[in-house]
Amino acid sequence: MKIVVLDGYTENPGDLSWEKLEALGEVTVYDRTSYVDSPVIAERIGEAEIAVINKTPITKETIDRCPNLKLIAVLATGYNVVDCQYAKAKGIPVVNVPTYGTQIVGQYAVGLLLEICSHYGHHDKTVKEGKWENNQDWCYWDYPMIELYKKTAGIIGLGRIGQATARILKAMDMEILAYDSYPCEAGRELAEYVDLDTLLAKSDVIFLHCPLFPETEGMINKENIGKMKDGVILINNSRGQLVVEEDLAEALNRGKVYAAGLDVVSTEPIKGDNPLLKARNCFITPHISWAAQASRQRIMDITADNIKEFLNGNPIHVVNK
C-alpha cells in the first residue's frame, strides 16, 4: 500500500515520527505541495492508494487524475479542502480527526483574552528595554488592566471546544452565556443558553467556537457588531471566515470593539492588505492554537488509526458517508 503525505511539515516539523504510518505501507512525505489547486498535487499522489493531507486541496480534477486513490486522510478536523461529494461518488472515503485539540484550543482562546486584559508581552518588552529600571514610580502600566471577575462571556458554539473554554472561564468566576443550535445537558451545566441577539447584547467578551457553515459565514458583521456592548472584546480561534474583516477593523478603530484576539483570518497565510493588520488593539497569531506537540501527536495517532481501520475494512471518522 502506497501512502503519500502531501503537506506534512506543519503537522511534523521534525519533533514527531511517521513510524505509525510507515508500519502500514510505503510512505512518501512532502513537507509542502500546494495550497491551491495545481497539477503537482496529482503528480505527487501518482500511483498511491492513500493521500494524507492537511491544507493541500483535493479537487475533482485531482481525483480524476489519480485512478489508484482509495482513501483521503485529513490531518485535521476541517475537510473543506476536499471535494468530498465527488470523492463519495468515486467510492473514496474521506476521513478526518474529529477530536484532538479540544483542551489546547480552549486554553489558547483564554490565553488570547488574558493577553488583551494585561498585555503581558508588551510589558515584558518594556521592562527589558529599561523602562522599569528608569521609571520614577515603583510600577507602571501602559494599557488599562481589565479584571474578568463576574464579567459576562458569550460563547457562540458550545461544542467540545466551547465547553473546554467555558470550564476555564467558570473557574475564573465569569458569567457564561451560550448560543448553539444544539443545546445539550453538558452545556447547560456550564452556561445559560440564550438567543444570539441576547448574547451579543449582554456579553463583555465574545468567543467564536462555531464551525464554518453558510449560515455562520460572516456572522460577525456590521449589523451584529452594532448589537454588541460598547467596548466588547472578541476572541476568534475557530475560522477566519466567520468575521467580515473590514467591519471588525472599522469597529476596532472607532472603539466599538475594544480589542480582538485572533488566531485565524479569512485567507491564510494572511495577506498584507488585510485591514486587521493595521486595526487598533488587534492581536493576531498565525493559526497556532492547535500546534502543541501533544496535540499534533494525537493527530498523528488518530490518522494512523483511521488508515489502519480502513485497511481492515472498517473505516472510521468518515465525513462523506
Describe this structure in words.
The protein is α/β, with parallel strands linked by helices. The protein has two domains: 2-100 and 293-311, NAD(P)-binding Rossmann-like Domain (Rossmann fold, 3-Layer(aba) Sandwich); 102-284, NAD(P)-binding Rossmann-like Domain (Rossmann fold), CATH 3.40.50.720. Helix content is 33%, strand content 15%. The protein has helices at 19-22, 39-45, 60-64, 84-89, 102-118, 120-128, 160-171, 185-188, 196-202, 222-226, 245-254, 293-311; strands spanning 2-5, 26-29, 50-53, 71-74, 94-95, 152-156, 175-179, 192-193, 205-208, 232-236, 257-262, 282-284. The strands form two sheets. A seven-stranded parallel sheet has the order 8-7-6-9-10-11-12, sandwiched between helices. A five-stranded parallel sheet has the order 2-1-3-4-5. β4 (71-74), α4 and β5 form a beta-alpha-beta unit. The model has no long low-confidence stretch (mean pLDDT 97).
Helix content: 25-40%
Please state the overall shape, judged from the principal axes of the Cα atoms.
Answer: globular
What is the CATH level 1 assignment of the largest domain?
A: Alpha Beta
Largest sheet: 7 strands, parallel
The tally of helices reads: 12
- Number of E-state strands: 12
Primary descriptors:
321 residues; alpha/beta; Rossmann fold; 5-stranded parallel β-sheet; 12 helices; 12 strands; globular
Describe, in short, the structure shown:
The chain contains 12 helices and 12 strands. With 321 residues, the protein is α/β, with parallel strands linked by helices.
